[in-house]
Amino acid sequence: MTEQEDLEINDIASGSSLSKDAWIRLRKNRPALGGLIILTAFFAIALFTPWIAPYGYEVQDLNLGATGPSQDHWLGTDIFGRDLLTQIMYGGRISLSVGFLATIVALFIGVTWGSIAGFVGGRIDSVMMRLVDILYALPFMIFIILLMVVFGRNMLLLFLAIGAVEWLTMARIMRGQVQNLRQQEFVEAAVAIGLSRSVILVRHIIPNAIGPIIVYTTLTIPSVMLLEAFLSFLGLGIQPPETSWGLLIAYGAETMEEYPWLLLFPGFFLAVTLFSLNFLGDGLRDALDVRGAKD
Amino acid sequence: MIRFVVVRIFQALPVILAVITATFFLIRMAPGGPFDSEKAVMPEVKAALEAQYKLDRPILDQYFSYLADLGEGDFGPSFKYPGRSVNELIAAGMPVTAELGFYALIFAVIVGGLSGVIASLHPNTWRDHLPMTFAMIGICVPSFLLGPSLMLLFGVHLDWFPVSGWGDIPGDKVLPSITLGAAYAAYVSRLSRAGMLEVLSQDYIRTARAKGLSEWRVITQHALRGGLMPLVAFLGPAFAGLLSGSFVVETIFQVPGLGRFYVQAAFNRDYTMILGTTIFLSTLIVIFNLMSDVLAAWMNPRLRSELFNYD
Amino acid sequence: MIFFRQKIPIFSLAFSVILIASCDVGEGNVDSGNRLGILHYGNGSEPQGLDPHVVTGVPENHIVRALFEGLAVKNPYTLEPEPGVAERWIFSDDKRVITFFLNPNARWSNGDPVQASDYVWSWQRALDPAMGNQYSYMLFPVKNAESFAKGKISDFEKVGVKALDQRTLEVTLNEPTPYFIQLLDHYSTFAVHPPTIKKFGMSTDRYTKWTRAENIVGNGPFVMTEWKLNRRIVVKKSPTYWDRDKVGLNGVVFYPTENSVTEERMFRVGQLHYTAGVPLDKIPIYRDMENTPYVQAPYLGTYYYLLNTNKKPLNDVRVRQALSLSIDRDILTSTVLQGTAFPAYSITPPDTLGYYPPRLFGYDPDKAKELIAEAGYPDGKNWPGIEIIYNTSEAHRKIAVAIQQMWSSVLNIQVTLSNQEWKVYLDSVDQMEFDIARRGWIGDYVDPNNFLDLFISEGGNNSTGYANAVYDDLILKKSTKAADRESRYQIFYRAETMLMQAMPIIPIYTYTSKHLIHRSVKGLPSNLMDSLNLKYVWLEDLEKEDR
Known about the structure:
The complex is a heterotrimer. Chain A is 77% helix and 0% strand. The longest helix of chain A has 37 residues, at 84-120. Chain A contains 13 helices and no strands. Chain C contains 19 helices and 18 strands. In chain C, a hairpin with a 2-residue loop joins strand 6 (161-165) and strand 7. In chain C, 50% of the residues are buried. Classes of the chains: A mainly alpha, B mainly alpha, C alpha+beta. Chains in contact: A-B, A-C, B-C. At the B-C interface, helix 2, helix 4, helix 6, helix 9 and helix 10 of B face helix 2, helix 9 and helix 15 of C.
């Protein structure tokens, strides 16, 4: 894809009239608006955590140990006597940034790759999709281990590594959508009036495929957060005392009988994020639905 | 159609060869070798071990001799489990993981598909919100949490199912299958709902309704085909992905499957085992992606006609 | 459409399967095991193999020692050697020649007698460089064994082991080695059945099928009847074992219980008699139970941090001491480790066969601050920053997180943690690419030597850069020439004092063994080696008593 075509995609996403209409429609959708507000709030908290967190994130009180919610520690403490609320706030910074950045990476590569393959078809499609097959099959763990060893530990790298894996499914789904849409009357009509391929792709196909893409994106964000937890748990992700929601849940799951709050509170925040995302995703899909706009 | 499948199978060979080559050299780049252990190994011992497994030869030599053995269907001996060949380990683990994955996908398609379709037919009612809420929970409850929770509830407290094993005690397959299937069910449910909603707003569905077809026929004969498209694109890689995904479930429930080998081999630098499982996995991926493409074509009549004329 | 309609029967089918399956889980393993005399044993992980000259791990050890028996075995109550295949042995006056007299009733499981020549053959196999036996050094006290294993001599005749006749084995040692008899209970010194091995390949092949359930021939109290990969290994009482009347179990089932949380639950629902470990967070609950199945005992192992003494700032002994002095081991072991470990101030665990190591220091934050200031980092100023590496594990993470905070609060220095994947970690330690690395050492035999010879200059497990000729001399020369145990221990004490003053390692805690053991299991005492001899274990049928 050329740079110019890139710009055109951005036009769709941020262009004047379409996005204004979409915004008006989105505002009327209460669950979506609620989701947007909660997510914004979480992002704001994550951004200001170092200034507003009740404790330092590495402050321990070994004698205190794991205690339930109390006046001093609203959400309780972990086995090191560290304040759980503080942990969750700092964890949110990592989880939200990993979740969104990696997903954006995956979204961008996947949508571009999949729509080109699906739209162009033929040999190019075959080659592109076989490449996806190869990447699917490579042992992911070895790939991550190598990245960590060659480039050292680096948060940005973690986003890229996860994004580089998640785009594959995105590409397959997008390709399926595009193949399907390519056969539709309105695309055939666009071909008939002599619009260029890239214009058809960007103006007609991608906007029409946006529903499943948004849904899959809202699914990808939580799975990316959990993948990060899995990698960190195996020693391939972030380093303690840094933490993330996924890691807090993973450790909490091990002590769910003894210290349930260590599982429940981080789980609650992840779930709220997820539901917000989901409502926002549904709202966005409805708001951006070009066919809906035609009605 | 047949031509399409044949072409794809021919394309598969270079794909798998590329995977083998890339993996073979990638794993050699990872630090540490199969015989490193916490207690220092005497240099003489290490040399002897490397000689027994031909690791002392030049790497290209090793590569071609591996390919030659592979041509005869020999994946080589496992480094981690002396006395076991990789063929044997895969043969022992594969049926278990396949069975686990099969049950999990059945669970996912039945529970997820049904709830997704039902939700899409009644958007924004309780019949939509309820299954979707469960789907969201299914996605955000990872298997490393769901597994132990199910085990604790149904295994320890209610004592309905065994807490571990596979095919040893009646009922021990239930909890692992549900645990593995739950996340997929959630995806299936969300994707099928979205796909169905997309299709149900299309002109041809309105046409079908206008023609006076019953809602049942509209859905089963027209809507499902298009509506489940994104699902089909997802299921192919999903089944192949079960192999690596089942690692967590297999570890939690001590299921003797291939997923554990696949992940542990990477950590053990068990070169032959990594290659063996990767080749196996890539073959699966090729097959399932092919199947999902064929199924997609079958569900999309226009694409189907195009496939008969595939270049 | 077929696709849609078929769903319903599958769904109802699946549902009914679930219902049927849930009806009855049946009699638990523990109950049936108690009735039949079968022990259900959580073994930690799938054994890599069962060839005594190949394997290296603890789970392998448990199974191998059920299937094979050494010349002498450890008594699980006292850890003192007692007769195994050898019914008795005598030392020459200079303590360098040991003559073993084999029990005439000792039999291989196929009925062949166990002969002295089997030992000569097996030790040659164990030492053969081509075998790649990682524990061949267990036989190095034997004369010329080390040269043979390193390929310096190829004539096995020169190695100090000889079959005088079919029942008499003569072993010649390099030096008098007080702990040599203990080593005979280690699997790398076990005899294997030569005809069986030859039947399935070359004697030094690592990957033949001779250890399969249908092929294996052993000489231990049990014989293997089933080996299902990653599911279970089943052994039953051997009919040919010389001391079969003392064997209290009819059989043992070993489970590869890799996940300790799951293992604990298997124990709770009555699937296991014995667990390989206990999740740390469960321990307080079990400890408070009446008639608790939780059993904890001191274990011959030390958890410590390796310091890279070649690298700034750890090349300064004051920095190393300051780090060690600012760790509050009491609070670490009582909180983070839930009281499952003892604070350690030396590499050798206390009371290692009567040896008590020096204790030169304790928790002393004031002294630590002084030392770090003297070294040029007053209140953490100019501190270059150091990193602790450890391999992925919940326990290592917890310790590192706590110590990181102790150092930062006492010394005000910056410490980062780096959790590394296992092989990467091994590689980093091997290449000495670290500042501080976590390490643990579990004794191979009960003797201070096993811990102290880690830090000789050329030691393969030294990994600190510590090199001291006086220390080497004490360990390698003087201690072997000591006249008696007391003077030998005095030499060790001197060496360990030197070591702890130089502080190339920071000892943190001494291990304990932790198990859940069902109350029907008898004859399984705790000991320092966490060594059990399944021969002595029996099950009391509690149900029968209740009836």
